[in-house]
């Protein structure tokens, strides 16, 4: 079994610093909630984690499947419930591929593999949110 661990330290007010195997993450809240707007927001970091997880899959699969792209971006947007505890009930993931000769069939397969098989964060999200996926192609 593989176990992950982080340590989080309170820095005062609404500010925290958390360890991560790759470095430190500073978190804070909006000023309207007593924070100083001096760090990342925990819920938004969940969306970034989803983008990072699937992005790593995509980058690896693009290389393995020799897909020709110039670059890609991932936009993730989440809708929160109205009641506390507020959590994402719907999440939209847009994959944006840029290139001069995009193989849409191959890129669709790459995204499907990440979404359906490899991305553990995507699977976690599916346990509490509806996840909508869209692929956009931009010829350059």
UniProtKB/TrEMBL annotation:
PANTHER family tied to this protein: PROTEIN YHFA (PTHR34352)
EC number per UniProt: 1.11.1.-
Gene3D superfamilies with a match to the protein in the record: 3.30.300.20
Pfam families: OsmC (PF02566)
Enzyme class: oxidoreductase
InterPro entries: KH_dom-like_a/b (IPR015946), OsmC/Ohr_fam (IPR003718), OsmC/Ohrsf (IPR036102)
Molecular functions per Gene Ontology: peroxidase activity
Keywords for this protein: Oxidoreductase, Peroxidase
Protein name: OsmC family protein
């Amino acid at each position: 079994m593989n176990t992950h661990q982080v340590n989080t330290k309170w820095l005062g007010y609404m500010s925290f610093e958390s360890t991560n195997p790759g470095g430190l993450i500073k978190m804070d809240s909006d000023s309207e909630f007593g924070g100083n707007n001096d760090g990342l927001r925990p819920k938004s970091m969940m969306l970034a984690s989803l983008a990072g997880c699937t992005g790593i899959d995509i980058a690896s699969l693009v290389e393995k499947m020799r897909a020709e792209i110039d670059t890609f971006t991932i936009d993730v947007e989440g809708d929160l419930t109205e009641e506390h505890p507020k959590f994402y009930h719907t999440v939209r993931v847009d994959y944006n591929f840029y290139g001069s000769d995009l193989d849409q069939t191959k890129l669709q397969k790459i995204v499907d593999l990440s979404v359906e098989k490899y991305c553990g964060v995507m699977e976690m999200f599916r346990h509490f949110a509806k996840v909508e996926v869209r692929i956009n192609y931009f010829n350059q």
